[in-house]
Automatic annotation (TrEMBL):
This is Sugar phosphate isomerase/epimerase. Gene3D superfamilies: Divalent-metal-dependent TIM barrel enzymes (3.20.20.150). The lineage of its organism: Bacteria, Bacillati, Bacillota, Bacilli, Bacillales. InterPro entries: IolE/XylAMocC-like, Xyl_isomerase-like_sf, Xyl_isomerase-like_TIM-brl. Signal peptide: none annotated. Pfam families: AP_endonuc_2. Keywords: Isomerase. The keyword Secreted does not apply. It comes from Paenibacillus catalpae. The keyword Isomerase applies.
Length: 274
């Protein structure tokens, strides 16, 4: 059984509106990234308590802390970043969730080899924090960071070699790096994937489109996951813009477009979801 979740801050900055739209789509989890215009790491303790109370009252659970950890330059100060990592891991424990989403630092163009050892050192420090708390860090592949393609994502995960560092597989981000997600990246990362981000993109332009309308090989991905018996989270991070045939749609409406697109693909593959 697939569990649908999503970055609800793409719906609205207001938590109640986020939950209303998710509820209308029968989605009862969310990836907590921001509420009330504040990134999750900026929430005060009182605000975190308020968010948790609202979620519990309305029957929602957090699937992952959508932190921006690792979204700094590899040359930026890392000590300050470690404090943010401690906050993210505390939030995961507070919301009783196993996962924190992270990245592997912005690298100057063409200098991945030069900064590899520093990337691994920093990632190992983050993993040590997570291990002590029993929290799993999910590395999301993204352009311009160290782990932007399949080979470097695998290098990172293999070198750290910890069950507390896994992959959040994002098809659209691979497309935007000119990588075919399923035919090129997936075989390298299969054993490390614990979480799926759902968005699609067009290889030629990098534009994000509803699932199944781009080059993200979403149908093939679902086929592979079904064969594998994957039964984890699929997190909607649609990044859709109100342009083209979607022109005039509001953010909540765009999220619903994304939700219904992946549900259609799941139905095509006879994959149940909750």
């Amino acid at each position: 059984m697939i569990t649908l979740t999503g970055f609800a801050d793409e719906i609205s900055s207001e938590l109640d509106i986020q939950l209303d739209v998710l509820e209308s789509e029968q989605i009862h989890h969310l990836e907590l990234r921001s509420v009330w215009g504040k990134n999750v790491l900026q929430l005060t303790d009182d605000e975190a308590v308020k968010v948790k109370r609202i979620l519990e009252d309305r029957g929602f659970q957090v699937s992952s802390i959508g932190s921006p950890l690792g979204k700094i330059k590899i040359t930026d100060n890392f000590d300050l970043h470690l404090e943010e990592a401690r906050k993210a891991i505390w939030l995961a424990s507070f919301f009783q969730v196993s996962y924190v989403r992270i990245f592997s630092f912005y690298i100057p163009d063409g200098e991945h080899d030069r900064y590899r050892s520093e990337v691994l050192s920093r990632m190992q420090s983050l993993v040590h924090l997570a291990e002590r708390a029993g929290i799993v860090l999910l590395h999301e592949n993204e352009s311009h960071i160290y782990g932007d393609n399949g080979e470097r994502c695998r290098d990172l995960l293999q070198a750290i070699s910890s069950p507390y560092l896994r992959a959040a597989f994002d098809p659209a981000n691979f497309v935007q790096c000119k990588v075919s997600p399923v035919s090129e990246a997936y075989p390298l990362l299969d054993e490390y994937i614990s979480y799926i981000h759902i968005k699609d993109a067009v290889m030629e332009t990098g534009s994000v489109v509803p699932s199944g309308e781009g080059d993200g090989q979403l149908r093939q991905l679902l086929q592979v996951l079904k064969q594998k018996g994957y039964c984890g989270y699929m997190s909607l991070e649609p990044h859709l813009q109100a342009a083209g045939r979607l022109e005039g749609l509001s953010k909540p409406e765009l999220f619903i477009v994304a939700s219904r697109a992946i549900k259609l693909l799941l139905a095509e593959q006879n994959i149940p979801w909750s």
